[in-house]
């Protein structure tokens, strides 16, 4: 070995101390591997946290949308209250809401904290009459919190008294600034989770948890069984203030990161040990020092460059392709894993065999331009088919390895897996579509206007066409379109209100009329909010409800009130007329009194006194019945409440038990226990007694009485039929007189002609009706239709 080569070796401290040099080299490589492992760990952790946050944010947005929709529903139900705090058209409005929102268990109106109005009633009977402030301490705390916040607050998840689990959103209502009660919605818990996307079955490594702090124990309670253990892994949380809920989302892949890092560390340690051993060996081979050093340096440089390239592009698939045959010449580990082939299997395949058939034409066109040197690179989003025949979406970049002007030889394909991104974009599209459908399903026009753009309409739901006849494009076509369509009598009032009151309060509600596209007039109740705050207003958001029918109902009610006043006058006039007709009784009494005074014998006088008593008794019965009739027709404040029809039928039959036994009547009763009618208690007892007693009284002399009583629910009401096999009524002669005053049809000595008249008046006073079918000698059927 020449002296010039030996001198540097002898004078080099590192070469003269091979063990220490190797040890320092080993520590350096271990430090590098540790740094790389730490960075890799951090990348994996950040990627998982970002994925968790995106999924959790999507679930929270869907849950927030559901809660906002529930608030709009509660507001809609609250709008059924009139100025005195009494609901109008509650069942009709609630039925429409339930039809449009199948996820709901029901809607409620809860005056003074007591559940009095519930739709649907069927299946929710157990909730009627519950006092939220007395039911339990927990319920009282949750209810008072909604009052204190003066906004929609959701209690639960709780076990519902009517069965199942759910959450209850309560909107506190105030009439004349005094607490009236709640407008509430009940949402099934499984529906809440489904709509929000809080479902663990859809993912193999994501797990949701739903929790809330119990105000009594101050302990956090979890509502998805068996999932709290996952919180030991990486997780993210979101708070839902409307119900004080916390949503957890955990990543269960604890072993995945360890496996990746373990492989990397093991590989690094192996490289480190091998490199250290080689270095130590090289340092001991001083005779071949420069030859070995140069050779090993070149080998390490190539290996280092390859290692660095593979590492830097670990999340990207790279393949080297023969540009003439299209066969793989080389593929990195990521690409092999992505496509599901080993490197040896992949080098036996042509790249076009892996591209989806629908994308081949475009790929061939671009590659033809690349080979003809029209372009030096191209990229495209295409689909690949892996070994398991699964579709992989990828962003592919193709670059040539030949110089410009040379013949095509080889090219590089860089493939980035964007399958998750495509799926996420599709989810976003579906979520946006769902949000639009949800908004458009609301029975009102949801709108948004920009304050900074001179109140230009930036959004309006499709309901604007259903309610006013304008398209969404027409509504947003020009600034001031809304003001142009206001009714001329309301325009100045609305403009003055907006100029003077808009930015004094965050929430507003007012009514006005608009001119629809067909020229009709539509009454609108507009509820709007200034967003995000009064200090920095940017947008106005609101919902316009069509209250035309409500206004018409108010007008109808006013007319009905006038009609009732007129009826009262007629009733009083009727009473005067009937009283005038009582003069015949007075004349009889006067005549009998004269006969008594002129009677010649005591027997004759006694006979006249008996006759006088009969006349007086008849007069008393007439006055009593007439008084009852006048009371029925003039009553305006009768109390109607839900009554169990089967219970009242049974009570009436018990009262008539003596006559039933004496007549040996056969009873066929088919009235379901779950039928409730809104009626006055006293009137319902009177109606049932009159009809059942008539069925017994007018039974046929030649056969045993058979009385059949059936009830059924129809639509939003019920029907009760009382059928007998008695003597019947000739309707061809007496139909118009059947429910008249003082009308009898069978000559019974105890008949007075008041019973059916009073029954019909009582039923019609409740807003219902009675019909009759009858044949002489066969029997009669009386049908009561309860609305």
TrEMBL record:
Residue ranges constituting the Histidine kinase domain according to the UniProt record: 577-787
Pfam families the UniProt entry points to: CHASE (PF03924), HATPase_c (PF02518), PAS_3 (PF08447)
Broad EC category: transferase
Domain CHASE: 111-193
All residue ranges annotated as the PAC domain in the record: 508-559
InterPro entries documented for this protein: CHASE_dom, HATPase_C_sf, HATPase_dom, His_kinase_dom, PAC, PAS, PAS-assoc_C, PAS-like_dom_sf
Protein name, entry field: histidine kinase
Source taxonomy: Bacteria, Pseudomonadati, Bacteroidota, Sphingobacteriia, Sphingobacteriales
